[in-house]
Design brief:
By secondary structure, the chain is an alpha/beta fold. The protein contains eight helices and ten strands. Strands 3-2-1-4-5 form a five-stranded mixed beta sheet. A five-stranded mixed beta sheet has the order 8-7-6-9-10, with helices on both faces. Helix 6 packs across helix 7. The protein is globular, with a radius of gyration of 19 Å. The two termini are 18 Å apart.
Length: 267
């Protein structure tokens, strides 16, 4: 039996996922991307093979996605992260028509058609204030690490206003709020709210349709999801469980790999 692999070389983390021919998740692995994109893609690929006790002969097709997809020299095909994320979202939540993906350095909103093609999409501007980096910088200003953001913000009692116009200017806002005695948790809550406001603007620009799926590393923070749900008047908002929020693009690439392998076998 042959398996397929999807690899997502993201700006912050690189992920690999193995699927069976029935689109069942067999294994997954991730690691910080860094600067050596060709090496990190091979690293996560070998990691997931080792964890599943498979070898390269067991793999029938590999598709790479993400901003560093063209550096994956051992893949069979590359696809854009918009395409892969749409497929991964629909595999987990059939009927998804809109996707909001917030990663370390990008924020993307896309609207899909009935064939899962990206019908409309918008990206954040180049400023880090519209990405997960904004939250990481805010945390560092206050002396916290990225993995402390979730537990910190869950202790918040209310939101401290943070404009989020610019990640650089936000530092002065944070310093000012700390000097006023604002709690770090409340400042972080305000930063999340600022990020959500930008996300909602992108969703409006793509003319969001019902059945929204949230994905990306930032969605691993429960408070972030709560803020989005509070701000949107939507009956159905889907969020992948656990760390799958970080694997949606890799998962979509793997499902496309299954389709390609099926087509090749028929030919």
């Amino acid at each position: 039996m042959k398996y397929v692999v999807g690899i997502d070389v993201g700006s912050t983390y690189t992920k690999a996922i193995i699927l069976s021919r029935e689109n069942e998740i067999i294994g997954r692995s991730l690691s910080p991307t860094g600067f050596k994109l060709d090496q990190i893609s091979k690293k996560v690929y070998k990691q997931v093979l080792a964890e599943t006790e498979l070898n390269e002969n067991d793999i029938g097709y590999i598709i790479a996605s993400g901003f560093g997809r063209h550096r994956v020299d051992f893949c069979d095909l590359t696809v854009t992260d918009l395409t892969a994320t749409a497929r991964g979202s629909n595999l987990m939540f059939p009927g998804t028509m809109t996707v909001l993906d917030i990663g370390g350095q990008t924020m993307k909103a896309s609207r899909l058609d009935e064939n899962l093609k990206v019908k409309s999409f918008r990206l954040n501007d180049k400023c880090a204030a519209g990405t997960g980096t904004f939250l990481e910088k805010t945390a560092r200003y206050m002396g916290y690490e990225t993995d402390e953001i979730g537990p910190l913000v869950q202790t918040s009692k209310f939101q401290v206003p943070i404009s989020g116009v610019c990640a650089v200017f936000a530092e002065s806002e944070v310093i000012n709020q700390l000097s006023l005695g604002s709690a770090p948790a409340d400042i972080m809550h305000g930063a999340m709210f600022s990020l959500v406001k930008r996300a909602i603007q992108l969703l409006k620009r793509v003319r969001m349709e019902p059945r929204l799926t949230l994905t990306g590393g930032i969605m691993r923070f429960p408070t972030m999801i709560k803020v989005i749900k509070d701000e949107l008047d939507e009956d159905i908002i889907n969020v992948p469980e656990g760390d799958l929020v970080q694997y949606t693009t890799a998962l979509g690439a793997a499902t496309l790999a299954n389709q390609r392998l099926t087509k090749l076998n028929k030919n």
